[in-house]
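Fold Annotation — chain and its backbone
Next Lines — sequence and tokenised fold

***
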Amino acid sequence: MKITADMIVSDIMNMDPGVIPIFMEHGLYCMGCFMSGDESLEEAAQVDMVDLDHLILSLNQYFGFDTGDYDMNGNEAGSSDYDATAKPMTEAERDELKVNSTAENDNSKPESDRKTDKSKDALTGL
């Protein structure tokens, strides 16, 4: 049975308590919460502001369910970032990667475009 957003958190933990570290790596700390008995994975992810798609991908890979052509971090097979042996990144690592890729994209622009972007920011107050 593949993990889905509507599954109850406690049911997933009852399938295999080994998923607890996966929940924690993703920032979902509801294992001891009295609500987890009735809370869906989607509801729990919303409360703890967890990336639901990434969590579901990690859980399905843990259980050995087919996750399509993606690695543990959601990188598509064939992409330069794909790593079949990768462990899931923490939320902080994913945030850092986003910040770094944004900075790299900004630095790849010609100087004239960066000045234009800054003038737009000044106009919008950003």
